[in-house]
Inverse folding.
């Protein structure tokens, strides 16, 4: 799966497939990026700030992470980490900002503010190309806390999902911290699809967010391991391949649509 992703060919119109990771504070967005980077580096990798269990967001920049390195081989994938969603109009990242990021209006490195980005900002892209857009929206939710997640945060996520749907952007949900949600899975991650507890969490997630079950992927991140684990890698790579495929489909659809439009003009 690693070799498949490293060699994955994307079309010439874009330089990379771009995924936006979003979700509540503490859901495991930064950990997911670290996990994917670790798998491609083939060693535990720590770059983004993984918070200890707190309730306020650490990430305030719109930050891009590329996958792999010169030495280990690049994959044509870029992950964007955004500030966590928090309940309340003025807390956490603005839903408007995430929607602008989806459309490709926000440049890498933008610092999220209390108010949405202004069109005068240096980080605002007025005429985004397909290469600036997000090609798959990845919602991150913690399996162990999904049932107690506040309605405020879920509502914000629904707004963002709806915007992505109307833009035609595919969406996936990663359910993290599965080891905290089920003892059996904690002991053996390979039993993840046999776990009734995890299935329940996926159903709650499907119901609360309004996404079909086949778009929800339970995963485990590296958080205390000093060695890589094949079971963690396999589950994450499997999920990543699904995301890559749906993002590629989106890109191809977009190219087809613009092609047809140019023909008409
Ligand atoms: N047990 C366990 N902890 C995790 C997992 N993923 C993330 N965490 C922990 O959850 C906390 C929040 O993670 P973080 O990546 O900072 O979340 P973010 O706010 O969404 O970026 C940290 O303490 C992580 O170590 C996981 O799969 N299993
Ligand atoms: Mg973070």
């Amino acid at each position: 799966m690693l070799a498949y992703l490293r060699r994955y060919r994307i079309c010439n119109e874009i330089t990379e497939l771009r995924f936006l990771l979003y979700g509540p504070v503490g859901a495991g967005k930064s950990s997911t990026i670290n996990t994917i980077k670790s798998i491609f580096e083939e060693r535990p990798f720590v770059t983004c700030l993984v918070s200890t269990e707190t309730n306020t967001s650490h990430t305030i920049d719109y930050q891009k992470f590329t996958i792999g390195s010169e030495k280990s081989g690049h994959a044509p994938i870029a992950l964007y980490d955004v500030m966590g969603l928090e309940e309340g109009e003025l807390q956490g990242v603005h839903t408007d900002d995430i929607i602008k990021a989806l459309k490709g209006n926000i440049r890498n490195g933008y610092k999220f503010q209390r108010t949405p980005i202004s069109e005068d900002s240096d980080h605002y892209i007025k005429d985004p190309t397909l290469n600036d857009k997000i090609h798959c929206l990845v919602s991150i939710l913690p399996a162990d806390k999904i049932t107690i997640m506040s309605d405020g945060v879920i509502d914000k996520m629904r707004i963002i999902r709806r915007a992505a749907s109307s833009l035609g952007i595919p969406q996936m949900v990663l359910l993290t911290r599965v080891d905290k949600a089920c003892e059996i899975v904690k002991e053996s991650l390979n039993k993840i699809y046999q776990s009734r507890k995890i299935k329940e969490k996926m159903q709650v997630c499907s119901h609360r967010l309004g996404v079909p079950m086949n778009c929800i992927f339970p995963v485990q991140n590296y958080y205390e391991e000093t060695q890589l684990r094949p079971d963690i890698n396999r589950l994450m790579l499997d999920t990543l391949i699904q995301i890559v495929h749906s993002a590629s489909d989106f890109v191809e659809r977009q190219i087809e649509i613009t092609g047809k439009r140019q023909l008409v003009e």
